Amino acid sequence: MPAFRSTLLRRGITAVAALPLLTLAACGYGSEAKDDSSAQKVAAGAEKIDGLDSVKIGYFGNLTHGTALVGVNKGYFQKALGATKASYQIFNAGPSEIEALNSGSIDIGWIGPSPAINGYTKSAGKNLRIIGGSASGGVKLVVNPDKIKSLKDVKGKKIATPQLGNTQDVALLNWIAEQGWKVDAQSGKGDVSVVRTDNKVTPDAYKAGSVDGAWVPEPTASKLVAEGAKVLLDEADLWPDKKFVITNIIVSQKFLEEHPEAVEAVLKASVETNEYINANPDEAKAAANAQLKADSGKELPAEVLDPAWKSIQFTNDPLASTLNAEAQHAVQAGLLEDPLLKGIYDLAPLNKVLQAAGESTVADAGLGVQ
Question: Do 93 and 32 meet the contact criterion of CB atoms below 8 Å apart?
Fold first, then answer.
């Protein structure tokens, strides 16, 4: 993010006691972590990869995890893994997915930047690597148009974020500071009241008048719009080239070291899925919604699904420079000790897959393994 944003943030945030770690947070809807027994059928004559019986993949029931949703629904992961079964676990919170990665309950996962940063920092850089990108964008400030008609009207209002220290919470605190307003990051009290509210209940809080708006990811933003809210700001407009990481692919370092071919297979499937999504947006949107229904029993109505899907960009690029910027904003807000992120990325397997597919390689912004 531009340097002037960091300067303003330093002036705008009330000093708070530094916390050792960001809160690990959910980014959206989804069931509690559960095993998915509906894995795609293994093709006849296929062989196991790395001698593995299965590869355990985690993701959220969230449109910003659309690569995983579509990849599962269309069978890309199972096809790439051959006779090695692709098994799935669905999460609705970052902490549980990081815990599952650490315990070996999953091997690879789709997850937001804040949980990835925290998981890496908490383990002193020993538990995970980010091995690819998945999505950019899909985050908006939506407000009650009767109470907030312009950006300046946000002052004095109650704005929801998913959780203290999560990716959207930090983004809102950063934006508030740019306006020259002050908020205590821990309590959320100040010139704007930052109300930490689970995405699943934010629409009800909005309808009840408990909050005047929300800085939230999709599909929560579009769900609020369907309830009468208006989009006041798209976070993408605050970033260079309108791109910022919202979903990464992470892997256990142990699994990466012991099963590189399986990791490459999952990345190959991810790249193929993103190609499908970008070439067939309507079909991919329907596939993602079908997988949401399969996972949770509920699909999104068109008035929520259509605008939400349109606002998300699916990309193989992890947008590493924006992850570093997000971490620094959390540090400046007093929500994170200055993290040592060197080594958080290992993009060699992804770049190998991209080169084989004739696509451009991606960079780690100096945060890769040596």
Answer: no
User: 88 forms bridges with which residues in the sheet?
Assistant: 36, 57
For 296, residues 6+ apart whose C-beta sits below 8 A from its C-beta are 29, 30, 31, 61, 90
The sign of the torsion formed by the CA atoms of 345, 349, 355, 359 equals negative
Task: Kindly report the length of the chain.
Answer: 370
Q: Is the pLDDT of residue 287 over 50?
A: yes
CA atoms of 256 and 4, how far apart (whole Å): 38
| Residue 7: how many other CB atoms lie within 10 Å | 13
Task: Give every CB contact of residue 44 below 8 A, 6+ residues apart in sequence.
Answer: none
CA 359 – CA 303 distance, rounded (Å): 34
C-alpha span between 15 and 184 (Å, rounded): 7
- Residue 42 DSSP symbol: P
Which of 57, 55, 64 is closest to 133 using CA atoms?
A: 64
**Short-list 339, 338, 340, 347, CA closest to 369:** 347
Query: Contact 129/253 with Cβ under 8 angstroms?
Result: yes
Q: What backbone torsions phi and psi does residue 279 show, to the nearest 5 degrees?
A: -85, -25
- Using one digit for the tens of pLDDT, what is the confidence trace for 179-210? 999 999 999 999 999 999 998 899 999 999 99
Per residue in 90-122, pLDDT (tens digit) is: 997 788 899 999 999 999 999 999 889 989 998
For residue 314, what is the DSSP state?
E
Q: Is the backbone peptide bond immediately before 318 cis, with ω within 30 degrees of 0?
A: no
**What letter does residue 268 receive in the DSSP assignment?**
H
Tell me how crowded residue 294 is: count the other CB atoms within 10 A of its CB: 16
Token couple for 256: 């990466």
CA distance linking residue 367 with residue 343, whole number of Å: 5
Q: Which residue, chain included where needed, has tokens 């919604």?
A: 289
What spatial distance separates the first Cα and last Cα of the chain, rounded to whole Å?
25
pTM metric for this prediction: 0.85
66 Cβ contact partners less than 8 Å away, ≥ 6 residues apart: 134, 135, 277, 284, 288, 309, 312, 314
At 339, the pLDDT band (50, 70, 90 cuts) reads confident
